[in-house]
From TrEMBL:
The lineage of its organism: Eukaryota, Viridiplantae, Streptophyta, Embryophyta, Tracheophyta. SMART domains: BURP. Residues 1-21 form the signal peptide. InterPro entries: BURP, BURP_dom. Keywords: Signal. It comes from Vitis vinifera. It comes from the Eukaryota. Residues 98-307 form the BURP domain. Coiled coil: none annotated. This is BURP domain-containing protein.
Length: 308
């Protein structure tokens, strides 16, 4: 059992008492990606206890990460095989979920809702994460290890995330669910290399602000291949990462009506011919499959690009 307890205890003493010391995963980041600053979305998933919400707690079994506050699983909008439901169409009629690439220019006004993101689960130390099973056929064992009751909402959320992670990607999509920061780094660099890699996320000063206009300095990032990682609802930080092609990524500076700044990552998909013709984006923007569709990444998504 020692091999199990040691990393967890080291983790706890680092995060709870010496918040400023480097965690092993930060050291790993700096060794693999010495010239890549850590995006805010990664920093937010590193240290528990900084904010309220889904925070890891001790369960009394020292070696098991317990959990409170898993919410009902949301389908990330990138699951583009789904057609829009009536609910989705009417939920936020004024919020710009999607936009056209031609509108990504100085002065365009947009209603954007950056509040939604409340997933505050944090990464487990790599050794702990790899010692907990993560596949549909191990569900009872997973629930037991995480001290989650089988009939609970939390169990349902855990099950849904594992099913999404187990499902093969569409059309040979290269995907991977990273259960630790080290695994996310390894997957992303295995797809993109580690030279000139940049990892970025959307950063917002005032989350309550919804009225924005695009400021000067829209910047295209990387080539047309990137890796995008979406934070899943789970007992600890798990990111669904997939390699995507036929996309253009931009860093878009925004200014809120109150003057608050945001730097939002926009992703424009150029191969939308293959999307479901009833996709929400086509209905909202009143365009046909084939037209490039852009959307902003939420604050808990990470994009990895390579700049030449
Ligand atoms: C944030 O935005 C909201 C909504 O516009 C506004 O009421 C509030 O004053 C802003 N907060 C700050 C600190 O500027």
């Amino acid at each position: 059992m020692e091999f199990y307890l040691l990393p967890l205890l080291a983790f706890l003493s680092l995060t709870l008492t010496a918040g400023d010391s480097d965690l092993p995963s930060e050291i790993y980041w700096n060794s693999v990606l010495p010239n890549t600053p850590m995006p805010q979305a990664v920093k937010n998933s590193l240290r528990p206890g900084v904010s309220k919400g889904g925070v890891s707690v001790s369960t009394g079994h020292e070696e098991k990460p317990g959990y409170v506050g898993v919410t009902k699983a949301k389908k990330p909008i990138f699951f583009y095989r789904y057609a829009a439901t009536e609910d989705q169409l009417h939920a936020h009629p004024s919020v710009a979920l999607f936009f056209l690439e031609k509108d990504m220019r100085l002065g365009t006004k947009m209603n954007l809702d950056f509040m939604k993101n409340t997933n505050e689960a944090t990464f487990l130390p790599h050794q702990v994460a790899t010692s907990i099973p993560f596949s549909s056929d191990k569900l009872p064992e997973i629930l037991d290890q995480l001290s989650v009751k089988p009939e609970s909402v939390e169990a349902e959320t855990i099950k849904n995330t594992i099913i999404d992670c187990d499902r093969p990607g569409i059309k040979g999509e290269e995907k991977y669910c990273a259960t630790s920061l080290e695994s996310m780094i390894d997957f992303s660099t295995s797809k993109l290399g580690n030279k000139g890699v940049k990892a970025v996320s959307t950063e917002v000063e005032n989350k309550s602000q919804t009225l924005y206009r695009i400021a000067a300095g829209v910047e295209k990032m990387g080539g047309d291949v990137s890796v995008v990682c979406h934070k899943m609802e789970y007992a600890y930080a798990v990111f669904y990462c997939h390699k995507i092609a036929a996309t253009r990524a931009y860093m878009v500076p925004l200014v809120g009506r109150d003057g608050a700044k945001a730097k939002a990552v926009a992703l424009c998909h150029t191969n939308t011919k293959e999307w479901n013709p009833k996709h929400l984006a086509f209905q909202l923007l009143k365009v046909k499959p084939g037209v490039p569709i852009c959307h902003f990444l939420t604050q808990d998504q990470i994009i990895w690009v390579v700049s030449k």
